[in-house]
Specification:
Length: 404
Amino acid sequence: MAAFSLPAQVAGPAPAERRGHVAVFNVPQHGHVLPTLAVVEQLVARGYRVSYAVTAPFEAYVRAVGAEPVIYSAPDLGEAPEDLSEGVRQAISVNLGALDELAAAFGADRPDVVLYDVYAWAGPLLANRWGVPVVQLAPTHVPYQGIIEEFFGLGDISEIPGFSQLAGAVAAAGLSSVHELTLAPPRVVAFFPRAFQRRPETVAAGECRYVGPALADRSFQGRWTPPRPDAEVLYVSLGSQFTRRPEFYRACVEAFGGSPWHVVMTVGQAVSHEELGALPGNFEVHASVPQLDVLAAASVFVTHGGMGSIMEALHHGVPLVAVPQMAEQRVNAGRIERLALGVHLPRETVSGGSLREAVARAAADPGIAAGVAAMRAEIRGAGGAAAAADTVERVLSGVAAPVR
């Protein structure tokens, strides 16, 4: 089983004449960092200096696209919880715990604009201190009517554990309302097309630009090539967070062992060969792989249904079998079914037989093929990283005012 590790250091693009200072704030998760990297690369290429606040495991990623890492401390939280309320509580703790550390790291080096992930509230809190505008970067659905119930199973955002601490920090910062930081940010760049957004007509953001997936070269992750040009590749991955699922991987081996598929399966760092049993010759199993390379060759993708993985697959025209592991991914799986982009296979129904049936349908259903082709066309017209960078430049030009 091949292990994957970050390079010790990767050289980014050569410095250009600097036009301004952009600060990016994120949480330490692949599904949140990766969608932003192509935007950073675009901004660097356009002559901006970019400082990127992130934890040490992502330092090489940030350097690879030409940004300067601003490293902050965060506890190792292990696998993300299936309960998104607990995940938000953890994110609030990480953000508030790092606030003073980040303020000291930037010191007098005030940026001209702050870009921040939906769970990186340290960004807008510091932007308020600095008096600079903000742009939220959304790797998943922009808040819509009903999101608190569908994502969290709660009636109101104030019921999320830790929310009172965030509200207290917002009040202490002198911001008018925590609502702006959570449900109605002033401006958003969303890394998916509007057609995939749940209930887009109810989105409360001041303005929202749906740019689709922002993809760029990720050779710093390594390379993968198919074993032969005519290989029919089936890609199986539950992402970077929900990987301790040996029973799911064994069901995949049962379903596709000895089949015509060449199966590429990622299982994370914690699942051993012994837990999987004997592997058929048509399987290659890794801790992780350069996902864009595999998707470029894949015919079907069995996925947990994270937004980043979905968008990367649709960019390549790959139909999906979604096996969601938590509520947010179940919402995504519902969109996949509704838009005829693939099959939703609830994880409690997973077996060798149900996996074979779902993959066969995703591969051969003409309605799914048409749905994937239509979404791929919308993605390609959404603008990607260049459109996101255009939005940031418009904010820097003074068209948008600082958040208050």
